[in-house]
Design a protein that fits this description.
It is a single chain. The protein is mainly beta. It contains 3 helices and 25 strands. A hairpin with an 8-residue loop joins strand 19 and strand 20. The N terminus is likely disordered.
């Protein structure tokens, strides 16, 4: 059949239009930014005035970093999106008078747990640890002992897929490293998350806010072990020495000191190898190789340490595996060498801490916050805790 010239021209134009349309960027509507301004439980020393989150009136306190400063932390109401996204754009304005700082970070809900916190630059895409339909923002405000108060205003968040997700994946097994532990002490002081330190307290400090739990939370917890004892504790302070040394992360995602091997704290490299001119992040000469600070109850009671020493630390949020949460109102839970209350105490677990669970077995019946049960959880080789005090699911039999 013969095609007329007008018909051929029309067909050509139709094909050209189809090709042109296919190559155009997507015009799908981008969701409007969600306004975020309401702090949730775990926040400390902040106040809200309209759209502004402002540092509160608590006086300066010295925590694990030994920096005399005022500090406030606001964890905000989580935001749900209609579909998963690999990145978000966080909008905000900040006021930082008199040498103060105002930082905003974001984390995402992936595989039924929160990722680490990642600093968000206003108006720029921030990659998430993986595709997620739920994120949360956090504001950290710091200031010298006297002077003006920093603030963050007009906080918004919206999804965008314009950047690839970073290589901050959860490993099959959480990272474990051999690091130098020091005793924090500082009873009566205030930690980076607003916790007031009490005698024989149970928490640890790590030198990065990426793994800092909110006050009373154990989202980010560690297992600290000597040759014969283990402690499970929440991360409630930042230090020692540095505040941007997430040494448990690989170089690709480590915030600072990217040329150091994964698992080696900057303070250890500075002290042992002369790294960074033997200085920390703030230009101070590093006096010990500490990569973790232990509250007194962890140091003296849980681990029975007599002096600062090297320990094995497992950063529980960096890997998969069975988990439970210590559900007590204060203090600590004994870890025993048998599934009964007469077994020798071989460690402790602090309030709200996450514990690893290898398996479960039957033993002495115990009544606790989770009811009455004879189930005990093995949290390390030869170490057990009563499930009556642990919020957890069901595990395979030992």
């Amino acid at each position: 059949m013969r095609t007329s010239r007008p018909a051929a021209l029309a067909a050509c134009l139709a094909v050209t239009a189809a090709i042109f349309t296919a190559t155009l960027p997507s015009t799908a509507a981008t969701p409007d930014p969600t306004v975020v301004s309401q702090p949730v439980a775990g926040s400390s020393n902040v106040r809200v005035e309209g759209s502004r989150i402002i540092l509160g009136d608590a006086p300066a306190a010295i925590g694990s970093t030994k920096l005399n400063q005022r500090i406030g932390l606001a964890e905000l109401t989580p935001v749900h999106f209609a579909a998963p996204t690999s990145a978000v754009i966080v909008g905000y304005t900040s006021g930082t008078p008199d040498g103060s700082t105002a930082d905003v970070a974001v984390r995402s809900w992936i595989n039924n747990r929160w990722s680490e916190w990642t600093t968000a630059t206003a108006g720029m895409p921030t990659a998430l640890a993986g595709a997620s339909d739920q994120v949360q923002l956090r504001v950290i405000l710091t200031a010298p002992p006297t002077g003006g108060s920093p603030s963050v205003a007009d906080l918004t968040v919206q999804p965008t897929d314009k950047v690839a997700a970073p290589r901050m994946s959860v490993q099959a097994a959480p990272l474990k490293s051999h690091v130098f532990a020091t005793r924090e002490g500082l009873v009566g002081g205030t930690t980076a998350n607003g916790h007031v330190i009490v005698s024989r307290d149970h928490f640890v400090a790590l030198p990065s806010r990426r793994g800092l739990s909110g006050n009373g939370s154990g989202t980010y917890s560690v297992k600290v072990c000597t040759a014969s004892r283990c402690a499970f504790e929440p991360v409630w302070d930042v230090g020692p020495w540095n505040t941007k040394d997430d040494y448990w992360n690989p170089s690709a995602t480590r915030e600072m000191w990217k040329d150091l091997p994964q698992g080696k704290p900057e303070a250890q490299a500075a002290y042992q190898d002369g790294y960074n001119g033997r200085k920390d992040q703030f230009g101070r000469t590093v006096a010990n190789p500490a990569g973790i600070d232990l509250a007194d109850g962890v140091f003296w009671d849980a681990l029975k340490l007599a002096d600062n020493s090297f320990v094995d630390v497992t950063y529980l949020w960096t890997g998969d595996g069975g988990r439970g949460t210590v559900s007590i109102s204060s203090g600590y839970l004994n870890v025993r060498n048998a599934p009964n209350s007469t077994g020798a105490v071989v460690g402790m677990a602090g309030k709200s801490a996450q514990v690893t669970v290898e398996c479960q077995t039957t033993g002495e019946s115990v009544t606790g916050s989770q009811g009455t049960t004879n189930i005990w959880l093995r949290v390390n080789t030869g170490m057990y805790v009563a499930k009556a005090w642990i919020s957890a699911g069901t595990f395979s039999t030992c």
